[in-house]
Amino acid sequence: ASHVLSRWGLAVLVCATLLVVALARVPGFAARHEQYLQDAELLLRALFALLLAAVPFLSRTQYLFRQLAVLLLVSGLVVVLDVALISWFSLSQQTSLVVALLVAFWMYVPFRHWVVSRWLVHGRLTSPQLFERLYAVTRAAEQSASRASALWAAVLRDLFQPMDVTATLDAVDEAELREDGELLVVALPLEHGSIALRYAEEGKRLFSPADVSLVRNALAQVRGALAVEQAVEKGRTEERERIARDLHDDIGARLLTLMYRAPSKDVEDYARRTIQDLKTLVRGLALPGSTLEDSAAEWKAELAQRLATADIALEWHQRLQGNPPLGAEQWSALTRIIRELGSNTLQHARAGTVFVTLAYMPH
To answer: I need a labelling partner for 63 at 20 to 30 A (CA). Which of 57, 165, 240, 255 fits?
Structure first.
């Protein structure tokens, strides 16, 4: 509150000082312009009243009061300029008023963005920055709900700059104000629970209904984007499954016929390898989702079986720092690599033992 009063009080003091100095330089001005002085006094009183109302802990509608206070400050500047033009250049009231309005407008426009961003708009995130951060939350939610919650908390922290941020188990409907605006409780995008923010802008103001509306809109955007992404992924999965069925039923049957009717051993082996590759492709397309550990167990069993036909032992070692999910492309690529390893060993190595080390380290 003291920080807000100091800023606005300084602005009022400067305007009042300029007004008094300008009036003091006009001989007999009070006698000739009594109504003008009364209007100026009323303007200053209204400005002081709005300043008190704009203090965060006295009103939850400080945004409107601050807008009105800025308007009155500009009006006070017009009064000061009008009086100065009359006293120093002996202009008529109509001419001085028009010139004062033009000069005040010319002085206000360059500083409007600074005034709005520093005095009227809470938080430090611009609209493009907020959109980018919400997009990051959406992308993180596809991989991990906890990661999305952490990014969501960071967005709220940068948006409102609260004195304290606490994770709670309270169930809220998107967002709600508590303790007369001291506390804002916000729901998590995916997980159960919420985030409690206390004292916005490091204690300089209370949370307002406008903050609740902002959070609800942001949360709705995140959840809407997640719903769209899930629908798109569902469509992709269904299309992959359809393609996999077509490949298996049509191309697979033809290759199998070719293998049994092959005119030579080479053609039969080629058809058999093609069928094996087709199975890998179909499995990758229809794969709903597999982890690295589950896939590694399948790779190990398949490679050991192939090597055993040539009396080759397998030494398989794993150093996995995590168990990430594998997409269809990742699974297919790794499966092809391991199968090619087995094929090269059987055809060219004449080995007695094959050593394989599978390592994973997250970024």
So the answer is: 165
Distance CA 317, CA 356 (A): 6
Tell me the residue length of the chain: 363
CA 356 centroid distance within chain: 42
Domain-wise residue ranges, the chain: 2-120, 127-227, 289-363
pTM (2 d.p.): 0.48
180-234 pLDDT, tens digit each: 888 899 888 877 888 899 988 877 778 888 888 888 998 888 888 888 888 887 8
Phi and psi (nearest 5°) for 169? -100, 5
Report the C-alpha gap between 82 and 94 in whole angstroms: 9
In the structure encoding, which two tokens stand for residue 327, read together?
A: 């997409």
Q: How far is CA 9 from CA 14, 73, 281, 282, 289, in A?
A: 9, 11, 73, 73, 63
According to CATH, the topology of domain 127-227 is Alpha-Beta Plaits (3.30.70)
CB 313 within 8 A of CB 352: yes
| Contact between residue 196 and residue 185 where contact means Cβ atoms under 8 Å apart | yes
Beta bridge partners of 168: 194
Taking alpha carbons only, the member of 275, 278, 281 closest to residue 328 is 281
As a CATH number, domain 289-363 is 3.30.565.10
Mean pLDDT of 82-104: 80
For residues 189 and 141, is the Cβ–Cβ distance under 8 A?
A: yes
d(CA 136, CA 150): 11
177-183 long-range Cβ contacts below 8 angstroms, 24+ apart: 177/207, 177/208, 177/209, 177/211, 177/212, 180/206, 181/60, 181/206, 181/207, 181/208, 182/206, 182/207, 183/207
142-143-148 Cα angle (round to 5): 75
Pair type for strands 353-360 and 313-320: parallel
Q: Which amino acid is at 95?
A: T
**Could you tell me which residues come within 8 angstroms of residue 8 by beta carbon, excluding any fewer than 6 positions away?**
51, 54, 69
**CA 339 to centroid of chain Cα atoms:** 42
